[in-house]
Amino acid sequence: MNDLSILKQKASVLERKGLFRRAILVWQEISLGQTFSQYERELALIHLKRLSTIIDKKAARQREGLKTFPDRYKNIAQDKDKIIQLLHQGVSAKEIQHLTQRSRDFIYNCKRNS
N or C, which end of the chain has less CB nearby within 10 Å? Predict the structure, then answer.
């Protein structure tokens, strides 16, 4: 196996694992490598654009997800009561985090102040 095939394989493994930023670094290494053919460098650029698009779409979905909870600052007292109640029931902090969409720090502050 030559250097190019090792790098391609490494990039594809990273992509399958969902590690897109690390895969981008490998494709950048290929695109900037002077020992590779022009065709291979252009192919690497195509992969870079594709991965950048995937990352941009993922970031946009995350921003949209944050917009679905615009009133989280209005319900602080209600959420504190709910968190304290769930903590007394024995629910873990991780589960409470998923149920209430509150940060881990917020949950532990509620636990400490209860």
Answer: N
